[in-house]
């Protein structure tokens, strides 16, 4: 790899240079290993920044779907469990989960005791709470993924700042 320095690299980009090339260039130019490492860190920061932005965009796109699901779950929780006659409303007018008997009885719910109805509703409440738990767990996982990417980006940003402060800056010559 031949690279020449005349204010900028002509043949190779800094991102594609390996240590051997760095040493060869270092002898021929004012570029230092610190400068090349700095440019590599900046390139890595740009990649991480893109990942953070993509993850945030994905999260924003999921938000309306999450809101729709939340609305459905909330509406499910507002449905009347049963009226005073003991007839369940949450399952009406859906077909009964119980097989009909020979007499044509549609469902034992009409003749069930309030305790039997409560057991059915407890099952429905467990389904609701299970769906809500799954929904929240998925949302938390998505948020934690974005949070982790932001934390990694911030750590690299801080490291790049320290690296840039430690680099030797060329002293400008004064013309008197």
Provide structural commentary.
The protein is mainly α and 176 residues long. The longest helix is centred in the last third of the chain and has 53 residues. The N terminus is likely disordered. The protein contains 3 helices and no strands. It has a domain of 101 residues. 62% of the residues lie in helices and 0% in strands. Helix 2 packs antiparallel against helix 3.
Quick recap of the structure?
This protein has a domain at 52-152. Helix content is 62%, strand content 0%.
Element order: H for helix, E for strand = HHH
Structural class estimated from helices and strands: mainly alpha
Distance between the termini: 41 Å
Q: If you compute it from the alpha carbons, what radius of gyration comes out, rounded to the nearest whole angstrom? A: 33 Å
In which range does the helix fraction lie? 55-70%
Give the integer mean of the pLDDT values.
71
Unreliable residue runs: 1-15, 91-112
Number of strands: 0
Shape: rod-shaped
Major sheet, described briefly?
Answer: none
Please work out how many helical segments DSSP would assign.
Answer: 3
Protein topology:
Elements: H1 19-28, H2 33-78, H3 114-166
Helix pairs in contact: 2-3
Notable features of this structure?
single chain; 176 residues; mainly alpha; 62% helix; rod-shaped
């Amino acid at each position: 790899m031949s690279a020449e320095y005349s204010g900028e690299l002509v043949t190779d980009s800094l991102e594609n240079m390996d240590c051997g090339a760095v040493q060869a260039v270092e002898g021929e130019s004012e570029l230092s290993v610190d400068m090349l490492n700095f440019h590599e860190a900046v390139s890595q920061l740009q990649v991480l920044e893109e990942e953070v932005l993509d993850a945030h965009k994905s999260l924003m796109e999921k938000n309306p779907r999450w809101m729709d699901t939340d609305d459905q779950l909330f509406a499910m929780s507002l449905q009347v469990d049963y009226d005073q006659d003991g007839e369940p409303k949450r399952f009406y007018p859906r077909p009964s989960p119980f097989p009909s008997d020979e007499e044509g009885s549609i469902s034992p719910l009409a003749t069930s005791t309030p305790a039997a109805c409560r057991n059915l509703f407890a099952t429905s409440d467990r389904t609701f709470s299970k769906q809500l738990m799954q929904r929240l767990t998925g949302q938390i996982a998505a948020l934690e993924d974005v949070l982790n990417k932001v934390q990694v980006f911030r750590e690299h940003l801080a490291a790049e700042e320290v690296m840039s402060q430690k680099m030797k800056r060329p002293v400008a010559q004064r013309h008197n």
